[in-house]
Specification:
alpha/beta; Rossmann fold; 5 helices; about 30% helix; about 30% strand; globular
Length: about 170
């Protein structure tokens, strides 16, 4: 992904990514790791939370994941719609953006819990805005700008998340 080595252990991974093409490539690798283990989830969707400042690349990573899972169309940020659902070979994938949430309770009104049951995977941008109504994320991806690139830090919130991150390390 870059000329800097990645570091990782079970359930944790940190890597440097330089440029949008490599962010998309990371998302594609993430999709491969997710595909390998996503069906191990019980009755609730696998949750990937994407954290970072405005414009840091959360939607770019989501786009890479969705394209890696087989989506061939455009991927727009669901900032205004709050959710964009995709029917993919993996199953239903929901891409959320909670940037415009005023109160986390709005998730209850939009039927967020139903999405968790119906979807195989939920990608959630700005998850801190839904605090108190979200389940523990299987994987949290923190993205920060570092010079010309980005530092991505992945942390598992569940055992399944740890397995996915370990699989991802093998792919990178």
């Amino acid at each position: 992904m870059s000329d800097r080595p990645l570091t990782g252990t079970f359930g944790e991974l940190t890597l440097e990514v330089l440029g949008e093409p490599l962010m998309l490539q990371f998302g594609n690798s993430m999709a491969n790791a997710l595909s390998a283990l996503c069906n191990e989830t019980s009755q609730q969707a696998l949750v990937v939370a994407l954290n970072g400042d405005l414009g840091v690349g959360k939607t770019t990573v989501s786009r890479g994941i969705l394209q890696g899972l087989g989506h061939s169309g455009s991927v727009k940020s669901p900032t205004y719609t709050l959710v964009e659902p995709y029917e993919l070979p993996l199953g239903k994938v929901c891409h959320f953006d909670f940037y415009r949430l005023i109160d986390p309770e709005e998730l209850e009104y939009m039927g967020f819990r139903d999405y968790l049951v119906e979807a195989s995977l939920c990608l959630i941008e700005w998850p801190e805005r839904g605090q108190g109504f979200l389940p523990t994320a299987d994987i949290e991806i923190g993205i920060i700008q570092t010079g010309q690139g980005r530092t991505l830090s992945l942390n598992a919130g569940t055992d399944l998340g740890g397995k996915i991150i370990s699989g991802l390390i093998k792919l990178l």
